[in-house]
């Protein structure tokens, strides 16, 4: 498939997503009820945020179980509710499948994910998998929680595990770990950051931007000259997630040393 065809297919997917969001908003307003989407990944959340901003929609929030969730559902609520009241309904919308492994077993994220995919569950029906020692919490939509409970035990890797359904309020906290980096750039233009963080030339960095692989604070960004702000979160698909922590100093050659935290 050519690059142009790939872009065309992506645009069609974007249009389909926007149409689904319009339906959700219309349902929420006409029925005066809370409604929500499936779990969204980063690209989908970026498109959704632009849609919400362009249409000046205010009665919504993203939620995935914790404030730092990667995958989240988008919740719309009617005017009769405020966000605080709407959030109280989330215990009915999201559940947690808790897996406690025997002491002699321990799995990585990919092993939990591959096991779940063997069940034929669509990726948009479950959110983050929060791995801990000898177990994991899986955030799922309530509508599919019973299926998880009834079928995970059928997988060889989980036969000896204790699997239970718990409230989203009891989700284990997701811990973020960082590696501190220092990069040297000529200015705080986005393409400079992408080049150094991806370890590629500036020309290649500009290609990465044009391909739609870069997100700033969850929003897709293709403008290579965009100036970053301290605290901005930079996601480069295929390269990692980073936080611009600040400028440390200026070099004798008038370049700047920048402090970066990379998510591990």
Give the overall shape: globular
| CATH uppermost class of the largest domain | Alpha Beta
State Rg: 21 Å
> What is the β-strand count?
13
Instruction: Write down the overall mean pLDDT.
Output: 93
**Which second-level CATH architecture of the largest domain applies?**
2-Layer Sandwich
Instruction: Tell me the span between the first and last alpha carbons.
Output: 33 Å
The percent range for helix content is 25-40%
| Low-pLDDT ranges | 1-7
- The portion of residues forming beta strands comes to 25-35%
Structural class label: alpha+beta
Which fold does the CATH topology of the largest domain refer to?
Answer: Ribosomal Protein S8, Chain: A, domain 1
Q: Which strand order do you get reading across the main beta sheet?
A: 8-13-12-11-9-10
Main features:
single chain, 264 residues, alpha+beta, Ribosomal Protein S8, Chain: A, domain 1, Alpha-Beta Plaits, Structural Genomics Hypothetical 15.5 Kd Protein In mrcA-pckA Intergenic Region, Chain A, 3 domains, 4-stranded antiparallel beta sheet, 13 strands, 34% helix, globular, disordered N terminus
How are the SSEs placed, and which strands pair?
Layout: H1 3-31, E1 35-36, H2 42-54, E2 60-63, E3 73-76, H3 83-87, H4 90-93, E4 94-100, H5 109-118, E5 126-132, E6 135-141, H6 142-151, E7 162-167, E8 178-185, H7 190-198, H8 202-210, E9 214-216, E10 219-220, E11 233-236, E12 240-250, E13 256-263
Antiparallel strand pairs: 1-3, 2-3, 4-6, 4-7, 5-6, 8-13, 9-10, 9-11, 11-12, 12-13
Helix pairs in contact: 1-2, 7-8
């Amino acid at each position: 498939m050519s690059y142009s065809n790939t872009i065309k297919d992506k645009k069609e997917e974007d249009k389909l997503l926007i149409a689904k969001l319009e339906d959700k908003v219309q349902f929420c307003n006409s029925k005066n009820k809370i409604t929500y989407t499936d779990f969204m990944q980063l690209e989908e959340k970026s498109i959704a945020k632009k849609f919400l901003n362009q249409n000046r929609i205010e009665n919504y929030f993203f939620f995935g179980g914790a404030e730092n969730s990667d995958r989240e559902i988008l919740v719309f609520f009617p005017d009769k509710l405020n966000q605080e009241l709407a959030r109280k309904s989330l215990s009915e919308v999201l559940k947690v499948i808790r897996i406690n492994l025997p002491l002699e077993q321990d799995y990585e994220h990919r092993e939990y994910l591959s096991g779940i995919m063997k069940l034929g569950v669509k990726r948009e029906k479950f959110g983050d998998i929060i791995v801990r020692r000898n177990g994991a919490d899986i955030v799922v939509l309530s509508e599919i929680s019973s299926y998880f409970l009834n079928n995970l035990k059928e997988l060889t890797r989980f036969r000896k595990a204790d699997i239970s359904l718990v409230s989203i309020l009891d989700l284990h906290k997701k811990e973020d770990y960082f590696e501190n980096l220092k990069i040297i750039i000529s200015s705080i233009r986005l393409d400079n950051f992408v080049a150094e963080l991806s370890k590629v030339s500036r020309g290649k960095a500009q290609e990465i931007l044009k391909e739609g692989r870069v997100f700033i604070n969850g929003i897709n960004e293709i403008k290579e000259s965009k100036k970053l702000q301290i605290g901005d979160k930079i996601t480069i698909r295929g390269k990692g997630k980073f936080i611009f922590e600040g400028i440390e100093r200026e070099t004798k050659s008038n370049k700047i040393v920048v402090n970066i935290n990379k998510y591990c």
